[in-house]
Write a structure and sequence with these properties.
heterodimer, A: alpha+beta, Alpha-Beta Plaits, three-stranded mixed β-sheet, 31% helix, globular, B: mainly alpha, extended
Chain lengths: 267, 131
């Protein structure tokens, strides 16, 4: 009995293996099956209850400084972004109050995160993704800043210290992701947790005020179900690390070797 | 003009000068919370009058670079207590002379840049709710 089961299993394995004697049509079917089952695994890995991810972002003690033991990052699955990232952009706007500066022309408006759409010429398949500061490990904006205002926090979040920023906009030019904006006018009614003002550069902060409290960034909370994961890239047990270790992910402009903290699927 | 007259004139000018200098600080809006003892209150006032700038700058760097967001010496906490919650009738902005920070900064003619970026009153949500 046991022997028969083993034989059957072996037969099954042999059927899935692609051998030289297979017919071409069989081959294609088998390739397809393997490819699709691979996708199934991918989907299952990210299909986790949101509660599990929430508990992962541990709040550090209030009076302790951040360390480089953690590196925050996020993974965005463009296939599951049903709206191409519109809700994520809207959540960011609401959280930080950018995008409606009264005197700025549309070109001057701040843009902490924007929706980028591209189309494959052959298949006509359109992909949309939200692009924000990619929180590079070796950030060009930090390299070029003449005052040291553009800096990388110990936990990998790239920020602007607006107290020392002189508004030269060198970092705006240096950033390959077009992630930084400049405020051209006097503002009022800012959000208490997100100071923004005239004459300095600003960009995605990865919702640093929320992370310090143990919450997830606003865009991650607003994203469609299972479309975005946030977590500690240095912790091999975190969901994001496990998924990245298993399936990998793309960086935008990977050729620049910036080792970005924001990764994508499906681009 | 004799030297005596000159001396008298200078003396009189000095008297006027001293009378013209009013060393008492301007009246400030009341804080939302109070200390338990009078001693604590006086210590807080003395420390902050001379040192608030340094304390705020020190905490600022700890917050920006270290992510330490405790209430102590944070501008956030100062504003939450010293500037009244906005209501439908009244919103105190940093451009009003009655604003806690502005009253003194007008008196001593020192420009205040914090509120170009930072919120000048407690949680904005309350204002939106009130309007």
């Amino acid at each position: 009995m046991t022997k028969r089961i083993v034989e059957a299993t072996l037969k099954g394995q042999a059927r899935n293996r692609i051998g030289p004697a297979d017919e071409p049509s069989d081959l294609i079917d088998r390739y397809k099956r393997q490819f699709l089952s691979g996708l199934g695994i991918t989907a299952a890995a990210v299909t986790l209850a949101p509660g599990v991810m929430l508990r992962e972002v541990k709040a550090k003690p209030d009076d302790e400084a951040v360390t480089n033991k953690v590196r925050w990052g996020m993974l965005i699955d463009t296939n599951k972004l049903t709206d191409g990232g519109d809700t994520m952009v809207a959540a960011c706007k609401k959280e930080h109050g950018w995008g409606d500066d009264p005197h700025a022309s549309p070109a001057q408006q701040s843009q902490w995160v924007r929706k980028v759409t591209f189309k494959d010429k052959l298949t006509q398949h359109e992909t949309a993704l939200p692009v924000m500061c990619q929180h590079c490990e070796t950030a060009p904006c930090v390299d070029v800043c003449p005052t040291g205002a553009s800096f990388k926090r110990a936990d990998g979040i790239v920020l602007v210290d607006k107290h020392t920023c002189i508004g030269c906009r060198y970092c705006v030019i240096a950033c390959p992701y077009k992630a930084r904006s400049f405020v051209h006018e006097n503002l009022e009614n800012q959000q208490p947790h997100s100071p923004r003002g005239v004459g300095v550069v600003e960009s995605c902060t990865l919702c640093v005020h929320r992370i310090d409290k143990g919450l997830q960034p606003a865009c991650i909370e607003a994203a469609p179900p299972q479309a975005a994961v946030f977590g500690d890239l240095n912790d091999p047990q975190s969901t994001i690390s496990k998924v990245l270790a298993k399936h990998g992910a793309q960086q935008i402009r990977a050729d620049l070797s910036l080792n970005t903290g924001v990764r994508y699927w499906g681009i | 003009m004799s030297s005596l007259t000159v001396c008298r004139f200078i003396g009189l000018a000095l008297v006027f000068f001293v009378v013209g200098c009013n060393s008492s600080p301007p009246e400030l809006m009341a804080a939302a919370k109070g200390f338990e003892t009078e001693q604590e209150t006086r210590r807080h006032i003395a420390e902050m009058r001379t040192n608030h700038r340094n304390l705020l700058a020190h905490k600022r760097d700890k917050t920006v670079y270290g992510g330490i967001r405790t209430a102590k010496h944070s501008l956030h906490a100062c504003i939450d207590c010293h500037v009244p919650m906005p209501t439908a009738q009244k919103v105190v902005k940093h451009t009003d002379a009655a604003h806690f920070c502005t009253t003194c900064h007008i008196e001593v003619a020192v420009t205040l840049d914090c509120f170009q970026c930072h919120a000048d009153r407690p949680a904005l949500k309350t204002v939106e709710g009130a309007q």
